[in-house]
Design a protein that fits this description.
Elements: E1 4-12, H1 18-26, E2 44-50, E3 53-58, H2 69-84, E4 87-93, H3 100-112, E5 117-123, H4 130-143, E6 148-151, H5 160-170, H6 186-204, E7 212-221, E8 227-235, H7 238-245, H8 250-267, E9 271-279, H9 283-292
Parallel strand pairs: 1-3, 1-4, 4-5, 5-6, 8-9
Antiparallel strand pairs: 2-3, 7-8
This protein binds guanosine-5'-triphosphate.
The site of guanosine-5'-triphosphate has 17 residues, from helix 1.
Region (G4): 123-126
Function: An essential GTPase that binds both GDP and GTP, with rapid nucleotide exchange. Plays a role in 16S rRNA processing and 30S ribosomal subunit biogenesis and possibly also in cell cycle regulation and energy metabolism.
Membrane topology: Peripheral membrane protein
Length: 302
């Protein structure tokens, strides 16, 4: 069997329908991903299987005219995700057409999208008549050389399967990036790992060994409705392990408690969180590419 796998970035103005499309393509589980945990790094929003292809959707915060510093960082992150992706899909709203925001994105796309596979998805086609769509398709394709144009309704599901099949053909031949039995809760695993990393950062301040990463090793749904989450904190040196554990394990206990509480509140149910610290000298090298993408590299999976 020839497998394929790759990264897909959905870009577009806020409200274009990116989350809706993701949910339709990936399944209901992603909807749990909210904007609550903000990060400037690209994150995985969901993974879809289509035939022998694995499509990993990376998050791109809505692209808008950045004013504040935080906004600028978010927009940069959005483009960062797109620049690393194998396929970029620009989503626009059919009834709004080429807005000033869309024009701005197209200008940036002229640089980022050069030589890449960029498709156009005109969304919310249920809101306009056919002639409008044809005019819009022509207009947009004159402004940028899209490899393909799709007319979809993310909400009603029209055209979504065609788009997904096409994406499956675009990603390169590659082993799958994530085991199939993990993809359903992958976004949750990543969010949980980020929560723990955030608590470590808060707790350790400057002491924090910068070569540190958190991975969610196992996620188990229990019959009583609670979730059992096992995480490993990887540090690159023995000395760092002591810092993370703290005097008599105080640091790790406090981090664990804070992360557990936040995760429980986020999920709205009870959480049992187990943290383990491991020394792995080479993790940085192994994980480099994934880390840059904001992905949690799982040992031995790639
Ligand atoms: N009529 C119609 N509405 C849609 C369609 N797809 C999405 N919407 C609606 O458009 C709104 C925005 O959709 P989202 O999926 O949240 O948009 P988004 O691009 O993820 O927005 P941000 O998270 O702000 O970047 C929601 O109210 C959706 O219900 C569609 O195909 N037709």
């Amino acid at each position: 069997m020839t497998t394929r796998a790759g990264f897909v970035a959905l870009i577009g103005e806020p409200n274009a329908g990116k989350s809706t499309l993701l949910n339709t393509m990936v399944g209901a589980k992603v909807s749990i991903v909210t904007h609550k945990v903000q990060t400037t790094r690209a994150r995985i929003r969901g993974v879809a299987m289509e035939g022998d292809s694995q499509l990993v959707f990376v998050d791109t915060p809505g692209l808008f005219q950045p004013r504040r510093r935080l906004d600028r960082a978010m927009v940069a992150a959005a483009w960062g995700g797109a620049a690393d992706a194998d396929v970029i899909v620009l989503m626009i709203e059919a009834h709004r057409g080429v807005t000033a925001g869309v024009e701005r994105i197209l200008t940036q796309l002229a640089e980022i999208g050069k030589g890449r596979t960029v498709a156009l998805a005109i969304n919310k086609i249920d809101r306009v008549e056919a002639p409008v769509l044809l005019g819009l398709t022509k207009d947009l394709n004159e402004r940028f050389e899209f490899v393909e144009t799709f007319m979809i309704s993310a909400e009603k599901g029209h055209g979504v399967e065609t788009l997904r099949k096409w994406l499956a053909e675009q990603v390169p031949e590659s082993p799958w990036l994530y085991p199939e039995d993990q993809i359903a809760d992958l976004p949750m695993r990543m969010i949980a790992a980020e929560m723990t990393r955030e608590k470590l950062t808060l707790r350790l301040h400057q002491e924090l060994p910068y070569q540190l990463t958190v991975e969610t090793e196992a996620w188990e749904e229990r019959k009583d409705g609670s979730a059992k989450v096992d995480q490993i904190i990887y540090v690159s040196r023995d000395g760092h392990k002591g810092i993370v554990l703290g005097h008599k394990g105080e640091t790790i206990k406090a981090v664990s408690k804070a992360a557990r509480e936040e995760l429980a509140e986020f999920l709205g149910r009870k959480v049992h969180l187990f943290l383990q610290v491991k020394v792995r000298e080479k993790w940085l090298e192994e994980a480099e590419r994934y880390d840059q993408m904001g992905l949690d590299f799982k040992d031995g999976n790639a």
